[in-house]
Amino acid sequence: MSTSSSLKRPIKIDAFKVAIRDMSSDELFNIQREIENSVHHLERSNDKLAKYIAKLEGNHHHEEEDEDTSEVETIDESDLQLFKDSMNENNIVLKNYSQRLEALTQEHIFRTSGKATNENIKSKNIDSDNNTQQNATPNQIYL
């Protein structure tokens, strides 16, 4: 049975900025790669959705044919709102990821500028231990 407390939700950008202060450079690099990979997939998805929407709205150009041709031919009018909603949701996530990539860039600049001499000091604003019973999994940032 799923409860609302078991749902994973992305942390807010301010909490993300605080949390990454306590991470190693390798961890930051891995998070950046993960976000960039997700951005790539979302952008590719939005490109496909844009083609589907264009076809349904009568703006599909046959000279733009590619490997998606068979998929474009099988969609119908009932899919239009779903495609628009999906594209809007993807754009919200892309904006969120853009903020996170910028925060990672700023953290990297801060660390390499010579101002971040205590990289291993933990932030007091985030509970980073797992000593409470509700925390059954290791700490992680859900992007």
From TrEMBL:
Residues 128-143 have a biased composition (Polar residues). GO terms for cellular component: fatty acid synthase complex. GO terms for molecular function: enzyme activator activity; protein-macromolecule adaptor activity. GO terms for biological process: fatty acid biosynthetic process; proteasome regulatory particle assembly. Coiled coil: none annotated. Residues 120-143 are annotated as: Disordered. PANTHER family: TRANSLATION MACHINERY-ASSOCIATED PROTEIN 17. This is Translation machinery-associated protein 17. It comes from Naumovozyma dairenensis (strain ATCC 10597 / BCRC 20456 / CBS 421 / NBRC 0211 / NRRL Y-12639). The gene is NDAI0B03390.
